[in-house]
């Protein structure tokens, strides 16, 4: 699901940015792991992940330890988003 919108990381709500940062710092996590690390509600995390997936910054895969869950990780495109966000902040 590559980002077809012109939306960027900077355009996302704070909750989506927090989920992005949690994945950046912790690496690959399940949705439950993201909920625990971010202290956001499961519904908020689910919405944030949908937004991040839509613009191609996060990808979802099967969690083989428990196939009922999915695992989320940043895409290679996310590194560009990190660099662009830091360049804007400077």
UniProtKB/TrEMBL annotation:
InterPro entries: WH-like_DNA-bd_sf, WH_DNA-bd_sf. It comes from the Archaea. This is ArsR family transcriptional regulator. The lineage of its organism: Archaea, Methanobacteriati, Methanobacteriota, Stenosarchaea group, Halobacteria.
């Amino acid at each position: 699901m590559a980002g077809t919108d012109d939306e960027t990381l900077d355009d996302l709500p704070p909750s989506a940015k927090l989920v992005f940062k949690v994945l950046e710092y912790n690496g690959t996590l399940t949705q439950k792991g993201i909920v625990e690390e971010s202290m956001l509600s499961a519904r908020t995390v689910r919405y944030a992940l949908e937004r991040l997936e839509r613009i191609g910054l996060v990808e979802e895969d099967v969690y083989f330890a428990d196939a009922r869950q999915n695992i989320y990780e940043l895409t290679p495109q996310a590194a560009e988003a990190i660099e662009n966000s830091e360049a804007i902040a400077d």
